[in-house]
Design goal:
The chain has a domain of about 70 residues: Cytochrome Bc1 Complex, Chain D, domain 2 (Orthogonal Bundle). The longest helix has about 45 residues. It is built from four helices and no strands. Helix 1 packs across helix 4 and helix 2 runs antiparallel to helix 4. The structure holds heme C. The site of heme C has 19 residues, from helix 1, helix 2 and helix 3.
């Protein structure tokens, strides 16, 4: 009887831990995508709302994730020449680029 009681308690504690950790994991994912959304606001002036460009500047919403990451890294390192993107990419960390890719790309 005593054993059953403590087993139940262990199960309850484990269940609570599991729920707590999955909640904090989904909060982490939300933080990441809202960070991507905030960063994307800085791109909207040129690339259009959420990367849907209406002008001559390329749209970035339909780029595959890897291509967005590669392009931003190449702009940042100077490997890919550009007019403004080199300066913009220099202000982005790897985390920023990952958050942008999560938010913007397919
Ligand atoms: C001042 C305007 C401007 C802003 C702001 C801007 N871009 Fe750009 N972007 C450009 C231009 C212009 C190009 C074309 C390359 C060049 O001339 O630098 C470009 C090119 C790109 C490309 C390559 C597209 C392709 O099809 O290869 C990516 C990816 C990109 N930008 C991402 C971003 C992201 C992400 C942000 C926000 C952090 C951003 N840009 C902010 C003007 C801008």
């Amino acid at each position: 009887m005593r054993l059953e009681g403590s087993t139940t308690r262990v199960v309850i504690v484990l269940t609570l831990l599991l729920v707590a950790s999955s909640v904090s994991m989904s909060m982490a994912a939300d933080t990441h995508s809202s960070r991507g959304a905030a960063l994307m606001n800085a791109c909207a002036a040129c690339h259009g709302p959420d990367g849907h460009s209406q002008g001559a500047i390329p749209s970035i919403y339909a780029l595959p994730k890897e291509q967005l990451v590669d392009a931003l890294r190449a702009f940042r390192s100077g490997a890919r020449p550009g007019t403004v993107m080199n300066r913009i990419a220099k202000g982005l960390s790897d985390d920023d680029i990952a958050a942008l890719a999560m938010h913007a790309a397919r």
